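User: I'm putting together a small comparison set for a docking exercise, and I want a reference complex before I start. The sequence is below, and the ligand is fe (ii) ion. Could you produce the 3D structure with the ligand included, as structure tokens?
Assistant: Of course. I'll restate your input first, then give the structure tokens for the complex.
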Amino acid sequence: MRNLTEKNLTQAVLKRLEKTSDPRLGQVLSSLVEHLHGFIRDIEPTEAEWETGIRFLTAAGQICDDSRQEFILLSDVLGATILADAINHRKPQGATESSVLGPFYRDGARQVATAGSIAENTPGEPLIVRGRVATTQGQPIEGALLDIWQSAPNGLYENQDSHQPEMNLRGKLLTDGDGRYAFRTVKPESYPIPNDGPAGKILEAMGGHNRRPAHIHFIVTAEGYEPVTTQIFVENDPWLDSDPVFGVKDSLVVDFVRHHSPEEAAQLQIPNPFYTVDYDFGMVPAG
Ligand SMILES: [Fe+2]
């Protein structure tokens, strides 16, 4: 393989990839090479521009640590995450739609009893979230596990904020015999995704803002069903139509209902006024 030119180089690399032992890896790398070469032919980068690209990716790696994942943010703001999500979760009617995992998930949240709180010493507007996990035909699913996480009203997840208790605003709970779940928390607010790294540079270049509409994250798992990774969003949030990570779907936008009733609050053992949100999850059998 000598004397390769602009014209025959891509074929030469693809030929070499034919020897890849893992067929799927060979397919992935071949497609990557075709698209990467196509990208280079398309933009014809100067050497200085190519160097800028290398430095950009290097900076994305360097800013990552245990609580910061810049590559997820980059994938999110370029719409790649939600595209991969859409391809992997083509859902029938009645199934809960998925949305991005985001960069702030942590495994290991504590188990919360039904109607228990995931918020520890967190100022904010009290909120009860409740509903059912069921099949798309409405049959309740007992023992479904909801893994929940959200930011505090100051816009920070606990792993971004040294003032919050460890694993604050995270919790796992199980559905009861009727497929029901309920937990207490504080009402989420919109928040800025980190813009002090390479993903922020992309957002800035796009001329867009970095505010995600207020939401609560869920991963719902149940034996025999496809897991669902999703978010529910607060109706009327001003950022719903310009989510920087393209994660909003109508079926995930929910009314957070404000109650001002000392009697009801006393009954529910929650400060008055408070909010409630009712949301049911529809699960699809594992295929
Ligand atoms: Fe989030």
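The chain has two domains: 1-44, 80-283. The radius of gyration is 23 Å.
User: Thanks, that's exactly what I needed.
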